[in-house]
Amino acid sequence: MIPLLSHPFLFLRHGQTAANAANRIGGTTDDPLDRTGLAQAEAAARLLADRPLGAIWHSPLVRARQTALAVARVTGAPMRSLPGLAERNWGVWEGQDRAVLIREATPPGGEGPEAFRARIRAALAEITAPFPVLIVAHSGTARELHAVLTDVPFRRLGNAEAVEWRQDRDCHWICTKLSPDR
Question: Fewer beta carbons under 10 A from the terminal one: N or C of the chain?
């Protein structure tokens, strides 16, 4: 049993990096937020300021840590780095245009889809009380989380886009976008 899945929770994708702006594969390359990404992180922090948070669990990559820190400053929630939440290692494809990405393939020097899926699921199992929590991570993390919770088609989150996951009366997980449309 995954303790996280007994509670509603929030997910926030990190703010924009230079690689995101250029439509390049970021993966495990540890790029910081760019100026736009920093502003997006601050806007997300304002959006989440009134949400009660037991903790902010984040990927150790700097772009996620910077985004989590913006939220922690306004909420006072403690930050917890969780290495398993890091983005998929895309090996030799990192830094290339996203058009080369084949999600079902294992790039040379990279992480295969099954290994990534297993890592994310193991990380989700490490998230513990206090709840509710905010997870700050990556598009790939959001994709795997989505696959665990629902069979509804995945929509890639924008940079610094926040969503809430909550179960309905029939115990189906529902994802609600919190960030305003840009």
Answer: N
Instruction: Please state the rounded mean pLDDT for residues 98-123.
Output: 96
DSSP state of 54: S
> Which amino acid, one-letter code, is at 143?
R
CA distance 157 to 57: 18
User: Does residue 78 have a pLDDT over 90?
Assistant: yes
Spatial distance between the Cα atoms of 52 and 167, rounded to a whole number of angstroms? 18
What type of residue is 147? A
Q: What's the rounded mean pLDDT across residues 82-108? A: 97
Which secondary-structure segment (H or E) carries 111?
Answer: none
Contact, 93 vs 107, CB < 8 A? yes
Is residue 182 pLDDT above 70, yes or no? no
DSSP for 56-93 reads EEE-SSHHHHHHHHHHHHHH-PPEEE-GGGSPP--GGG
